Amino acid sequence: LTLFVSYWMVVVSMAADLSVTKGAATGWDICVLSQGDTVATFVPAAGANVQSVKRRGIEYFHQPEELSKLPGVRCGNPVLYPTPNRIKGGSFEFEDKKYVFREGPGNHIHGLVNSAEFTGESTEVTSESVSVTAAIRFDDQSERGKLFPWAHTFRIKVTVREGSVRWEYEVDNDASEQVLPFGVAFHPYLKYQGTRQDAFLHVPAQSLMASVKQLRTGKLRDLEGHALDARKPVSLAGYDSDDVFFGMVPEKPARLEFRDVGRSVTFKASKEFTHLVVWTPGRPFLGIENQTCSTDAHNLAAQGLNEIAHLQLCPPGEKRQGWVEYVFE
Predict the structure, then answer these.
(1) Over residues 18-43, mean pLDDT
(2) What span, in angstroms and rounded, lies between the C-alpha atoms of 76 and 122?
(3) pLDDT tens digits, residue range 132-165?
(4) Can you give the chain as a three-state secondary structure string?
(5) Is 188 a residue whose pLDDT tops 80?
(6) Is 284 exposed, middle or buried (0-12, 13-18, 19+ CB in 10 A)?
(7) Residues 6 or more apart whose Cβ sits within 8 Å of residue 105
(8) Coil/strand/helix, residue 66
């Protein structure tokens, strides 16, 4: 940690576009990345959460009451890994072995790292962008390593450019001797800009995943005539969703338009992100959640349904990467 703090001090002195301060109550490094009129606040120790994104002074993410409440899944843009969304019964099977994340009734939700402390690894500043990379280790000494016993490193790189923020993940299966099954998702708490009725959603997906009590059955539903069909922009007034869309491709990103105030967010993603959760609670925020796999993907894959679940696999000694980029206009 001492070396990490010293490294920050060198970077701050060299680059005006990256500043790092300490949270007064938490002692966490607060990284402020800015490029032009786009500013993101990244806190590695709080689950690698990007707490805030502002464009031209306008905040796009729901904020915590105080920094200590940033970890978890309630504000900013939490990172979900290695199991996005829910695991039925809190356990799954992979290659004939059972893994238990949660004992007793109920489901496990949103992975193992959204409250965990990532460590800053590197920074990069160019004439066009500024980046910070943070990492977390899974090993048999940590609770997450005991629950998900593949020795490996998971990294998040956050990059700010004019008008956009990009998240890149890397799964480095450097020490495990087994194939590592994983999923990655981002869970932004997006503030409504203007009124909900003037917020329009466009999701050019192929289909919708059928579900029972928010767990996917492995069956697909045709979007034609469905109440959640957003293949053409639809108003979010009365749009009630906590559902998974299937068949997203890089050439057709999701988009959210706040028409009454003339703002929009486009959710670009690499080919790994085939699924998209749309969550519209009756609150001042919503979630447009790019996922590399379905809810309960590990269990669906164990049932022979991985063509739909899209569980990601990283062989021993290899790496897997992907990215999501939000474009603010």
Answers:
(1) 96
(2) 22
(3) 999 999 999 999 999 999 999 999 999 999 999 9
(4) CHHHHHHHHHHHHHCCCEEEEECCCCCCEEEEEEECCEEEEEECCCCCEEEEEEECCEECECCCCCHHHCCCCCCCCCEECCCCCEEHHHEEEECCEEEECCCCCCCEECCCCCCCCCEEEEEEECCCEEEEEEEEEECCCCHHHHHCCCCEEEEEEEEEECCEEEEEEEEECCCCCCCEEECCEECCCEECCCCCCCEEEECCCCEEEEEECCEEEEEEECCCCCCCCCCCCEECCCCCCEEEEECCCCCCCEEEEECCCCEEEEEEECCCCCEEEEECCCCCEEEEEEECCCCCHHHHHHCCCHHHHCCEEECCCCEEEEEEEEEEC
(5) yes
(6) exposed
(7) none
(8) coil
- Mean per-residue pLDDT, 19-43: 96
In this structure, what token pair is assigned to residue 288?
Answer: 């447009």
141: tokens are 């000494």
Helices (H), ranges, the chain: 2-14, 143-147, 297-302, 306-309
Is the distance from CB of 312 to CB of 272 less than 8 angstroms?
yes
127 band by pLDDT with thresholds 50, 70 and 90: confident
